[in-house]
Design goal:
2 strands, single chain, two-stranded antiparallel ribbon, 157 residues, mainly alpha
Amino acid sequence: MDDAATARSTEFRDLPEGAPAMSVTLALTDQDQLTLRVAAWGAVSLMSAAGAAGSAHKAGVNASIALTSATGPVGHVLAKAPKGVQYGRTVAALADQVLPALTASMSLLAERDPAEAGNFRRTVLVAVEAAGRSQKGEPSPVMAEMARKITEALDAA
């Protein structure tokens, strides 16, 4: 397959009446998009698992809303959760897949569009914070530690 067949360059246009045309393009292969989705949605799953002592469902819902509220090219990619991904049976297995995907996503985006790398990082951290706020009071030590690991993975790139 050649680059034209594997890369998807999506042009996003929002044109309110009378506004000048503006487009943002970020070329990502299907595999690149899957990596971003596994990273972000996997972070939601990690926070949900860490919040199991409280309300894992509420943590997951709050974090999911944050991801689906993302904007820009990253927002378009994260609007859909990854399909058919097998995360494993344990939180450790999930983390083994998600934490490296977070680092890979940041490296990939930093290479192609540093502004979108920042957008991705902020979006994931907002989702992590939203999950943490699902509990009354401060996030549990387990959730705080998972948030630290996610942040560390984002910053490792």
